[in-house]
Amino acid sequence: MKVYNTLTKKKEEFVPLVPGKVSMYVCGPTVYNFIHIGNARPMIVFDTVRRYMEHKGYEVNYVSNFTDVDDKIIAKAIEEGVSAQEISERYIAECKKDMAAMNVLPATTHPLATMEIGGMIEMISTLIEKGFAYDVNGTVYFRTRKFDEYGKLSHKNLDDLRAGNRSLLVSGEDQKEDPLDFVLWKPKKEGEPAWESPWSAGRPGWHIECSVMSKKYLGEEIDIHAGGEDLVFPHHENEIAQSECCNGKDFAKYWLHNAFLNIDNRKMSKSLGNFFTVREIGEKYDLQVLRFFMLSAHYRSPLNFSADLMEASKTSLERIITAVDNLKFLVGNAEDKELSLEEKESLTQAAAFETKFDEAMDDDFNTADAISAIFEMVKYVNTNISGENSKSFIQTVLDKMVNLCDVLGIIVDKKEEILAEDIEKMIEDRQAARKAKDFKKADEIRDALLAKGIVLEDTREGVKWKKA
C-alpha cells in the first residue's frame, strides 16, 4: 500500500510503527455552527482510509477531536447570550447527527479540547523548561527559531517567512521575540471562559490542543496525521514543532491532506452566497449521495461541487443500489443447487473486480478508480446473472459487491417507500411534540422521516414535505 506523504512530497510504502496496528489522528471541526460541506470532505475521505485499513486487517486507533473553545464559539455564545459550553455541546451533537447521516464511523476517541487543559499546561511547561517557549505578561509563545526543522512540512523557507512578516514587529504592540513565534497560552478577556495556569488565567492556543490530544490517545509517535490542505501551514507545521521539541521524537510518520472543495468553480464563502452546510444539502439529497460525490474524485484533487454533479452522483449511486437490489431479489427466488462449472469460472471474473478495487485503494486511496471497479461489477451483474443461476452463486456475487461498497462507506440498501398517510401521521405527532415542548421527540421524528428520504419544511402555512 502506497500513500502520498506531504512531508516528503512523494508516495511511500505504508509501514506502520507497530505491525498490524495503525494510529491515526484527524483534525476535527471547531463547533460553533452546523458543519459545512468543506468540513465533510476530510471526514468522509479519512473515514474511508480508516475503513480500507480495517479491510486490510489493521487494527486502527482513530482519533478525531472537537475544538470546543475558540474565538468563534465565544462570539456565538455572546451573540446568543449563552455559555460557550452550551454552544459547543449543541453543535457537537448536531455534527454527530450529520456524520451518522454521511455514514462516517464514530472515532475510537473524540476528545474535547476543554477536557485536556491539564495536558496542555504540562506540555507548555516542558517547552518553557527546554527553552522552546517563553512567557510575556501571561502570554506564552513558542520560539520558532529554536526548532531547526521548522517549515519541513509546508516546505516554506523560514527566512522568507520572517521577511514577509516583519511588519508584525511593531514596537510596543507586539511582545514576541520573533514575528513567527506563535501563541501556546493566552490570558482571558472579559467574559471569556478561562482556566488557571502558572502564567495567567486564560486558555490554550489552537495548535497546542491537537499536539496534546494526539499524544494522550495515540502516543508520542503516530503513523498518520491527516486533515485538509488548509491546515498544512501553520496548524500542522506548528504541531510538529511543539510536539517534536517537547517529546524529542518524530511526531507523525505520514501526513495526508485532502484538497479544497470549490462551489461552481469558486471558493466557498458566505460573502459569495455559495456556502452550504451538510444539513442544507441533506434537505435536497440523501447524504449518501454527498458521500458518493466526495469519493468520485481522488482526495488530493480539488473537487468542484455543483447541482449538476450532485445529480450525476445521485444517478450513479442509484445504478449501484438497483444492481444490488436486483441481486437480492434473485437470491430470494433462486434455486438452492450446486455451483455449475460456468458459475465457478464466472466467480473468477468477479474476483478480478475485487483485485482491481484493492489495487486502486492501495495506490494512495484512489477512490475514483475503486468506484470504477464497482461499476464494472455492476455491468457484469446486469449482463451475466439471472434467475437461472444458483442461490449460492448469486449470494457470493452479492456479498462481494456489498463488501466493496461497505469499504467506501456506501450504503446500498434501498430505502423503503413510505405512504403519504404515514408521513402525515408522523407530521401530526411531530407537531404535537413541539406543542408539548418535547423538542427531542420532534427532532427524532424529523430525523426518522429524513432517513426515509422525506424532507420537512416549516412554513407559515404549515408543514410541507417532499421527497429528497
From TrEMBL:
GO cellular component terms given for this protein: cytosol
Domain Cysteinyl-tRNA synthetase class Ia DALR: residue ranges: 356-419
Keyword Transmembrane: no
InterPro entries registered for this protein in UniProt: Cys-tRNA-ligase, Cys-tRNA-synt_Ia_DALR, Cys-tRNA/MSH_ligase, CysS_C, Rossmann-like_a/b/a_fold, tRNA-synt_1_cat_dom, tRNAsynth_Ia_anticodon-bd
Cofactor section: Zn(2+)
Residue ranges annotated as motif 'HIGH' region: 29-39
Binding site for ATP: 270
Location (main, coarse): cytoplasm
Record localization: Cytoplasm
Keywords in alphabetical order: Aminoacyl-tRNA synthetase, ATP-binding, Cytoplasm, Ligase, Metal-binding, Nucleotide-binding, Protein biosynthesis, Zinc
Record-listed Zn(2+) binding positions: 27, 210, 235, 239
Catalytic activity reported: tRNA(Cys) + L-cysteine + ATP = L-cysteinyl-tRNA(Cys) + AMP + diphosphate
MF (Gene Ontology): ATP binding; cysteine-tRNA ligase activity; zinc ion binding
Top-level taxon: Bacteria
Gene Ontology biological process terms, A to Z: cysteinyl-tRNA aminoacylation
Cofactor note: Binds 1 zinc ion per subunit.
Pfam families: CysS_C, DALR_2, tRNA-synt_1e
SMART domains xrefs: DALR_2
Entry's EC annotation: 6.1.1.16
UniProt short sequence motif 'KMSKS' region, positions renumbered to this chain: 267-271
PANTHER family documented for this protein: CYSTEINE--TRNA LIGASE, CYTOPLASMIC, CYSTEINYL-TRNA SYNTHETASE
Subunit structure: Monomer.
UniProt record similarity statement: Belongs to the class-I aminoacyl-tRNA synthetase family.
Official protein name in the record: Cysteine--tRNA ligase
Organism of derivation: Robinsoniella peoriensis
